């Protein structure tokens, strides 16, 4: 089968590799769609970060570069391993793409398995990836999705779960005013979750298409271009001079982080969602004098079931955020290059590893 393989910084190759074997306790999935994530872009430009470099195998997966990329995937079950009785051939599924040590409690009451030692992600740390025609995944990490949800939209459930967990970490509540720095996929999907619980959302974003997408999709009440207006002043106008209650950093850009610090009210909450491939700086004096809470958030923890339910019930519409579909051969030129160098023209680009649906 064909797959996108990460060798090193700016070195991704489309290759033919062996089809994985379905073993007891696992599920074989024909990948329908896989999204290109900001984390994939960071690995390409700044990495390896999560990807174990060649010759330095990950302690759980035992793999190192080259590895197959892709962790935002949807697909159809083609085979189930011995002992798997609650998933059937033909089911539509998404993957919660974790690589976690077997001795870690990943049960429904756990709220910290995603923080366990050596945690990594399928599609980054090994065990296959969504940028391949097929993948075999342990049953624990496979989530059925109702067939009423189109498979292309289902591929966005993984990043939507990131947004849902970030909102949970922020302790946002109805009536709050939130400022979201960046209207890329994670910023937009975080905003969608915020709107779903009754939060007023303000977005700061350079790209006109992304600002328009935020407003037209209904996930933002206001979307400002920081080159044209003073975003901090606009937030103050909207909040009677108080400032935003919560802020979400979704860009890994220093000036955005600084803007959010200034836009927050005293005792506001700053939640850092993006993966930083470099060190950021925090104005400690502002942090102290405003008593700002700073919280990190990584991925999700038992978040997929509730996120899937939101989509199945029609409470969040994912279709508007899909702005491109490509095949595996166009991964770099029409995928990575677009999102790195022309991201003002796209939000979420999906890849069909088999070419079906294009």
UniProtKB/TrEMBL annotation:
Cofactor section: Zn(2+)
Keyword Secreted: no
Record-linked Gene3D superfamilies: Medium-chain alcohol dehydrogenases, catalytic domain, NAD(P)-binding Rossmann-like Domain
Pfam assignment, any one: ADH_N
Enoyl reductase (ER) domain ranges (all copies): 7-328
Molecular-function GO terms, alphabetical: oxidoreductase activity; zinc ion binding
Keywords: Metal-binding, Oxidoreductase, Zinc
Alphabetized CDD domains for the sequence: butanediol_DH_like (cd08233)
SUPFAM superfamilies, sorted: GroES-like, NAD(P)-binding Rossmann-fold domains
Entry superkingdom: Bacteria
InterPro entries registered for this protein in UniProt: ADH-like_C, ADH-like_N, ADH_Zn_CS, ER, GroES-like_sf, NAD(P)-bd_dom_sf
Similarity comment text for this entry: Belongs to the zinc-containing alcohol dehydrogenase family.
Protein name according to UniProt: 2,3-butanediol dehydrogenase
Species assigned in the record: Gulosibacter chungangensis
């Amino acid at each position: 089968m064909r797959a996108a393989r990460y060798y090193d910084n700016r070195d991704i190759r489309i290759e033919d590799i062996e089809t994985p074997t379905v073993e007891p306790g696992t599920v074989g999935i024909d990948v329908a769609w896989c999204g290109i994530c900001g984390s994939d872009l960071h690995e390409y430009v700044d990495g390896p970060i999560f990807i174990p470099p060649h010759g330095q195998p990950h302690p759980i997966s035992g793999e190192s570069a080259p590895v197959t990329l892709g962790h935002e995937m949807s697909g159809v079950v083609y085979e189930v391993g011995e002992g798997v009785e609650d998933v059937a051939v033909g089911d539509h599924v998404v993957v919660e793409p974790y690589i976690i040590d077997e001795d870690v409690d990943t049960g429904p009451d756990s709220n910290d398995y995603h923080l366990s030692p050596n945690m990594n992600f399928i599609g980054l740390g090994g065990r296959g990836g969504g940028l391949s025609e097929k993948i075999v995944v342990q049953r624990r990490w496979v989530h059925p999705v109702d067939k009423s949800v189109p498979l292309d939209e289902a591929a966005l459930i993984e990043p939507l779960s990131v947004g849902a967990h970030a909102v949970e970490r922020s302790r946002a509540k109805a009536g709050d005013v939130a400022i979201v720095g960046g209207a890329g996929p994670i910023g937009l999907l975080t905003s969608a979750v915020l709107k779903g619980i009754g939060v007023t959302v303000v977005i700061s974003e350079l790209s006109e298409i992304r600002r328009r997408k935020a407003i037209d999709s209904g996930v933002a009440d206001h979307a400002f271009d920081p080159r044209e207006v003073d975003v901090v002043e606009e937030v103050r106008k909207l909040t009677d001079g108080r400032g935003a209650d919560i802020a979400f950093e979704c860009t890994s850009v220093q000036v955005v982080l600084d803007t959010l610090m200034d836009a927050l009210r005293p005792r506001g909450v700053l939640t850092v969602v993006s993966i930083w491939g470099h060190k950021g700086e925090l104005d400690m004096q502002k942090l102290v004098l405003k008593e700002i809470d700073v919280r990190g958030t990584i991925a999700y923890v038992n978040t997929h079931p509730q996120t899937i339910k939101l989509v199945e019930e029609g409470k969040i519409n994912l279709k508007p955020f899909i702005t491109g579909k490509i095949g595996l051969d166009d991964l770099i030129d029409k995928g990575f290059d677009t999102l790195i160098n022309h991201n003002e023209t796209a939000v979420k680009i999906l890849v069909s590893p088999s070419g079906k649906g294009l």
